[in-house]
Amino acid sequence: MKIKVAIIGGGAAGFFSAITAKENNPKAEVIIFEKSTKLLAKVKVSGGGRCNVTHDCKDPFTLATFYPRGGNYLKKAFQQFHVTDTLRWFEKRGIKMKTYPDGCIFPLSNDSQTIIDCFLSETKRLGISIQTSSGVTAITKEREEYILTVNNEQVKFDRVIITTGGQPKKSGLDWLSSLGLEIVDPVPSLFTFNMPNNPICKLMGTVINPAHVKIEGTKLQAAGPLLITHWGMSGPAILLLSAWGARVLHENEYIFNILVNWLPEKSEESLRGHFKNMKVSNENKMMVNYSGLPLTQRLWEFLIEKAGVPTMMRWKDFGTKNENKLLTVLLQDRYSVKGKTTFKEEFVTAGGISMMEVDVHRMEVKKYPGLHVAGEVLDIDGITGGFNFQAAWTTGYIAGKSAVR
Ligand SMILES: Cc1cc2nc3c(=O)[nH]c(=O)nc-3n(C[C@H](O)[C@H](O)[C@H](O)COP(=O)(O)OP(=O)(O)OC[C@H]3O[C@@H](n4cnc5c(N)ncnc54)[C@H](O)[C@@H]3O)c2cc1C
Question: What pLDDT, in 10s, does the model give residues 323-336?
Answer without folding.
Answer: 999 999 999 999 99
